[in-house]
Amino acid sequence: MQRATEEIIEFQDRQEAQALLGERDEFIRVLMDNFDARFVSRGEGVTISGEASQVEPAARVLRELQYLYRQGTAITMHEVRYSTGLVKGGKGEALHSLFGDTLLVTSRGRHVRPKTLGQRIYVDAVRHNFITFGVGPAGTGKTYLAVVLACAALRNREVEKLILTRPAVEAGEKLGFLPGDLQEKVDPYLRPLYDALQDILGQDVFQKLMLKGVIEVAPLAYMRGRTLENAFVILDEAQNTTARQMKMFLTRLGFGSRMVVTGDPGQIDLPFGAVSGLVEAARILDGVNGVGVVRMEAVDVIRHEVVTRIVEAYEAYEEKQRAAKTRRLENKDIARVKKEQV
Fold first, then answer.
1. Is 1.10.3470.10 the CATH classification of the domain at 4-100?
2. pLDDT digit string, tens, across residues 136-168
3. How do 215-217 and 161-165 pair as beta strands?
4. CATH code for 111-303?
5. Under 8 Å CB-to-CB from 200, ≥6 apart: which residues?
6. What is the distance between the alpha carbons of residues 101 and 134, in angstroms, rounded to a whole number?
7. Long-range contacts for 182-191 (Cβ within 8 Å, ≥24 apart)?
8. Rounded to an integer, what distance in angstroms lies between the CA atom of residue 268 and that of residue 201?
9. The pTM is what?
10. Is 186 exposed, middle or buried (0-12, 13-18, 19+ CB in 10 A)?
């Protein structure tokens, strides 16, 4: 026989109530869809009643969201759905430590934290390795978190400069046809990194650090022959490096430096038949001491929930395509064997 219980979550003020209940109570409706309990919302709080097996986890989700809000983070549908999924999946104990780890406070006072367990694993890998590969679909925060950790390392004087690079034009990095000097040629390709830095540091600080050379940007081809010391180095869009380029880049690591390599193997723009340096390096170096390889998944996508569904749909489609190709090859082999036997 199930034990009946009741829990009350009290709010500090109307602003907190709105933040936790959501616009037109949309967040509470998510909890109602996931937990078989009765939710009664009043101005001063929410009363949850029903069977203990449903009430207690629902209350836990709401309390963790309340803790997160009081730490300065705006609550979105992602936090609500992800927290609910963790608690229902028996991983509720990870919620508090996940939401409690502030990586950095931006120039606007926003607290940046890992938002998924995959992101937490990624952050820990960057902190504990000299080279870290962040591999996964778009929207999982690979690049943004790398920039956050780079800025934190710079603020804490762990490094002296930030170096940002990415393959400039698909695989070839042929910049000559573009107008302007080197900086103007490279800027369009580094815009996502610039946007992240400006969001974290603020426009004025970002510009000052660029002028002083504390933040350096360059196409991957210009890394050749250098040894990068006392620096935090980020190679973005690494799925479009060749195997030779990747080896060249990784061997630039100097004393006091840390490297983060990010990319999405599902968005390779290399010529047909060319091997992605990211895919090869992540496979070769997985397990090497001092190197971390973190593979993020669709569940780690921090964008509109439709984007998550799009990523999952494409992954399912691509899996079907691979299976169909395998069946065609098997059928060809069977037909060939039969022909040889005749």
1. no
2. 988 889 999 999 999 999 999 999 999 999 886
3. parallel
4. 3.40.50.300
5. 104, 106, 107, 112, 147, 148, 151
6. 19
7. 183/217, 185/219, 186/217, 186/218, 186/219, 187/217, 189/219, 190/164, 190/166, 190/217, 190/236
8. 31
9. 0.75
10. buried
